[in-house]
Specification:
The complex is a heterotrimer of chains A (117), B (155) and C (461).
Chain A (H helix, E strand, L loop, with lengths): L2 H23 L20 E8 L2 H13 L5 E5 L5 E8 L2 H12 L6 E4 L2
Antiparallel strand pairs in A: 1-3, 1-4, 2-3
Chain B lengths: L12 H39 L2 H6 L10 H9 L5 E6 L10 H13 L3 E2 L5 E5 L10 E7 L3 E6 L2
Chain C lengths: L2 H25 L5 H6 L1 H21 L6 H22 L15 H22 L6 H17 L4 H6 L8 H13 L7 H20 L5 H12 L2 H6 L6 H21 L2 H15 L4 H16 L4 H28 L13 H4 L4 H12 L2 H4 L2 H15 L3 H23 L15 H26 L11
Helix pairs in contact in C: 1-3, 1-4, 1-8, 3-4, 3-8, 3-9, 3-13, 3-15, 5-9, 5-10, 6-8, 9-12, 10-21, 12-13, 12-14, 12-20, 12-21, 13-14, 13-15, 14-20, 17-20, 17-21, 19-20, 19-21, 20-21
Classes of the chains: A alpha+beta (117), B alpha/beta (155), C mainly alpha (461).
Chain lengths: 117, 155, 461
């Protein structure tokens, strides 16, 4: 067998396996904390997120601030990425969520709109 | 590796060569069978790893020890890196495994580094310990429903 | 888990390759760049061993451990190799005539090994830290080196197995520095590099000595052993020890057959690294040296002084760590009943040996590797080889005897050991013999086919 052909066989197979993986399993994932932040896609309910904190103590402070200015239903929960989320869940529509965000910005809070997981 | 077949029956070199052929053939056959098994297993492992959420991947083997992720996450967020802590384990943890009491301090040491464990630390992670033994002035920052506390002694 | 971590790890391993190439240039040089390509795996493993040993000595000396320390140490090693090469007047390499011819069968088998390594990489990339010993002490030691810049007294005295040498934690800490964080998930990929490097090193050394079919068949067989598939990526020292041991043993036997000084010099570095990887590394190193002494008894006047010098140099690399933990009053390196205590526990001898054999010959763990090793040794003897099969037989025999002594001596262990393989200490020990087979069995079978010990090849690396 010509010298180059055998090496080509090895090279083709070496490239073939990752290509097959890409085709059947999709591109490789690089997990990060941002994976738990779900961009609003329009399917299902939303949440208005006042922020993420590393500790529940700090998250409770932010929650209490939000409750104190009238955002009833603000709760803390672990986000699955090592952080604590401070949010109002079960927002029925994007319009409602954006209205909540506008109100929050008037009292020095800076929430974002996310999709519920 | 050339030669007619009858030469494989000659002693000693033919027999040695026959042995090489048989040995290699056996190794190849078994190797191919186990290659398929290995590829299957590695594919499953890769898929399982990719499907895990961030917390589970971060705790991994510790999930068999810690009962809940919250207390150690909270400890890591609250305890400054240049302060010490101690882990006090007792029997009163709901959902504890046989690994929890003997090894929670080991796991905490790994998870909370560079924070240092110290027997007289103010920061305490109480895994089912008797809180009354900590004395007055123990401020609880987190209380997990499993009976795990993270707090700090005053002073 | 991030791209940054992966790129950082890749950079570390390229750096190790460069360091190893410098060492290889000093040890033997290369006639062509294609020859270097063939020996790239060996260069990489020399770099890993060199960095591991040198950085361990740096830590013992109390020099602050940082990214700069790693880079300067590596550059010093490569520079030393270049200086030696310059002194010896090594000629500049030429491009060369391209890679060696590989038949279809050899290519097909190589393909399987390459695809296996790719699948293993996928499994490594997002693996959490599950292994008990990894989070109990191996990775905490690495984190301590990373965070505190040295052998932190508190952590290195309080963590379990305080006397275990720090070569692997040192390399893990180096990985953390290059990744920019103590990313214990991506750390598994470092152990993928170690395995890939080992396979490439063995392939490079044996490519000019054995037919590709033999080389790749037994590499594949060792790699697909269930225990290797399941455990080789764990951030612990077990398999790293096995790769370094196997390379040391391979280089020693090549030296016995070919008497090229660089082979013994390379083996010396690997033996030193073996002894700085785990405490059983001392046992394994002793097995290699003892087997070499016996196998070379016919020309003991030339061989034994060289083997003695190599052993002394390897021991000298390992002694500073010993001095460090003795000076810090750390104990527990040796079993309490390892000496005369054995006589008080004679009833443990046979069950200990049984435990070792059960583990080493377990088809669930290792398929048929060790039985094939025995057959290969016998065939090599029948074929007319002597030095090679004597050496191989003795390495395995001494190792099995040594493992038996170890189990016998640790009276806390109940024998025969019937623990699950996940916590059976003998299983870890046996792995070294399985990994070694990937290197020795092709040589043994080739010798059996040829009807003599492998000839000295002028072009062989």
């Amino acid at each position: 067998m010509p010298r180059v052909s055998a090496w080509l066989v090895v090279a083709v197979a070496a490239l073939g396996y990752p290509l097959l993986v890409l085709v059947f399993s999709g591109p490789p994932a690089f997990p990060s904390r941002a994976d738990c932040v779900l961009a609003p896609t329009g399917e299902g309910e939303y949440r208005v997120v006042f922020g993420y904190r590393d500790s529940e103590l700090e998250a409770l402070e932010l929650r209490d601030r939000a409750l104190a200015v009238g955002f009833q239903g603000t709760e803390i929960s672990r986000d699955g990425c090592g952080r604590v989320r401070v949010a109002v869940d079960d927002i029925p529509s994007r319009e409602v969520g954006e209205e909540v965000i506008r109100e929050a910005r008037t009292v020095d809070l800076d929430p974002t709109l996310e999709q519920e997981g | 590796m050339h030669g007619d077949f009858s030469s494989f029956l000659e002693w000693p070199h033919g027999i040695a060569r026959l042995g090489v052929v048989l040995c290699t053939t056996l190794a190849l056959g078994i190797g191919l069978v186990y290659f398929v098994k290995a590829m299957d297993r590695l594919g499953d492992t890769a898929r399982t790893n990719a499907a895990q959420n961030y917390d589970d991947r971060e705790f991994a083997g510790g999930n068999a020890v810690v009962v809940a992720n919250r207390p150690l996450y909270e400890a890591r967020a609250l305890i400054p890196e240049d302060e010490t802590y101690r882990v006090i384990a007792g029997p009163g943890v709901d959902g504890a495994t046989e690994l929890t009491a003997p090894f929670i301090d080991h796991y905490a040491r790994y998870f909370l580094m560079p924070r240092r464990p110290s027997p007289d630390a103010r920061w305490v992670i109480c895994y089912g310990c008797d809180q009354s033994e900590l004395g007055d002035g123990f401020e609880v920052f987190l209380e997990d429903e499993a009976g795990i506390f993270v707090g700090r002694l005053a002073g | 888990m991030t791209v940054r971590s992966l790129l950082g790890l890749a950079a570390l391993n390229l750096f190790a390759l460069a360091v190893g190439a410098g060492l290889l240039w000093g040890l033997r040089g290369w006639r062509s760049w294609w020859e270097l390509a063939r020996l790239a795996g060996l260069a990489y493993m020399l770099g890993i061993a060199g960095l591991g040993v040198a950085l361990t000595l740096v830590l013992v000396a109390g020099i602050p451990f940082s990214l700069a320390t790693i880079l300067l140490t590596g550059m010093a090693l490569a520079g030393a190799g270049a200086a030696v090469a310059h002194r010896l007047g090594r000629p500049r390499p030429v491009l060369g005539t391209g890679p060696r011819r590989v038949g279809l069968a050899g290519a097909a088998l190589a393909v399987l090994v390459v695809v296996y390594l790719e699948a293993l990489f996928r499994a490594a990339r997002l693996s959490g830290l599950y292994a008990f010993d990894a989070w109990s002490f191996w990775v905490p030691k690495a984190k301590a080196i990373y965070f505190f810049g040295g052998l932190d007294e508190q952590f290195f005295s309080e963590l379990p197995n305080a006397t275990y040498p720090p070569l692997v934690p040192t390399l893990e800490a180096s990985a953390f520095h290059f990744m920019g964080s103590p990313d214990v998930v991506t750390l598994h990929v470092q152990f993928w590099f170690f395995l890939a490097g080992f396979v490439a090193a063995v392939a490079g050394l044996l490519a000019t000595r054995v037919p590709p079919v033999l080389l790749w068949t037994f590499a594949l067989l060792a790699l697909v052993s269930p225990r290797v598939v399941g455990r080789t990526l764990e951030p612990q020292a077990d398999f790293t020890l096995d790769y370094l041991f196997a390379l040391a043993a391979l280089l020693v036997v090549l030296w016995l057959l070919e008497r090229r000084p660089w082979q013994l010099a390379g083996a010396t570095l690997f033996l030193g690294a073996v002894m700085l990887t785990k405490r059983e590394g001392q046992l394994l190193a002793a097995c290699v040296v003892a087997a070499a002494l016996v196998a070379s008894w016919r020309d003991w006047r030339t061989a034994w002084p060289r083997l003695g010098l190599a052993s002394a140099c390897a021991l000298a690399l390992a002694l500073p760590w010993r001095a460090w933990y003795v000076s810090h009053d750390l104990t527990g390196e040796f079993p309490s009943s390892g000496g005369t205590g054995l006589l008080e526990n004679l009833d443990r001898a046979w069950p200990s040996f049984q435990s070792v054999l059960t583990s080493a010959f377990s088809t669930d763990l290792w398929t048929v590797v060790l039985p094939l090793v025995i057959v290969a040794v016998v065939l090599a003897f029948i074929g007319g080889a002597r030095v090679l099969p004597v050496y191989a037989m003795l390495v395995y025999a001494f190792a099995l005897a040594g493992f038996t002594w170890g189990i016998w001596s640790f009276v806390e262990l109940e024998v025969p050991i019937e623990r699950d393989e996940a916590i059976n200490p003998v299983v870890r020990l046996s792995a070294s013999l399985i990994v070694l087979s990937a290197a020795l069995v092709p040589l043994l079978l080739d010798a059996a086919w040829r009807g003599a010990d492998p000839p000295r090849r002028p072009e062989a690396g």
